[in-house]
Amino acid sequence: MNKVVYMGYSDSMIRCLLDSDLFDLIMVIGKEGRMNKNQYQMIEENHIPYYELINKEELEKIKFPNEEFTVILRKFEYIIPQSMIKKFRFINFHGGSLKYNRGAHAPVWSILNRDKASCLSMYELTGGVDEGILIDEYPVEITEEDDINTLNVKLESGIPKLLVSLDSYLSGNIKGISVKNGIYHPKIQEKDFTIDIENDSVKVISAKIRSQRNYYGALILENGLRYRVEDFTLFPSTGYKRRFFDGEILIVDDGQEFIRCNVRSEKIFGGEK
User: Which of 159, 21, 161 lies closest to 92, judged by CA?
Assistant: First the structure.
């Protein structure tokens, strides 16, 4: 059985490792403030040693178990230093394609770019960001209803299958493929989910809102004020033209349908500045 240390804050990964007959979870390393009650409960009930990082400077101070193990990463905060990659084997589960969607916010970009498909990529780190030895992928479809939560559920449903592939890889029964120079997307900025009422199509607006539905909402800048859009509804076109007022946006797209968005000012929404 492969002994593994898990670094990250994924309920699904912790549960899958605990349920696996191929892996023995011997330690969990998380980031202060990112773990939830369910994760703490799983760790405590299974008597797993746990270490909580305060900042990235603590990475190289971690006291790992004094035995042979592999480190599994999923939803982890920090880039692993090259000095650590030389010491230990790190396997990352990335929520996008290493060839087309590298970077920290891959699922968000999948929705913003209106991709029809994505994958959970499993690869061994060699040093570059989202570069390494690709071991296996779990493909998923993306619909026009998906948001970050539903997409992550689809992606993480592939963890059990990928763990089987990882066991074969660690045993030397399969070989990975070196992947470098894939398309890299930077961290998401406000401009990426700011709605242009005059020019954005209904599909673009839908993608921007769905990409932020599980966070604080997409952004609208109007008359010097900032508004958040939390959700929307699509209807057949009734002849409305594009207009905005505090509480609602109505937009016709190509005379076929219109989108109604509930809008709230940031001050009302959460006291943001």
Answer: 159
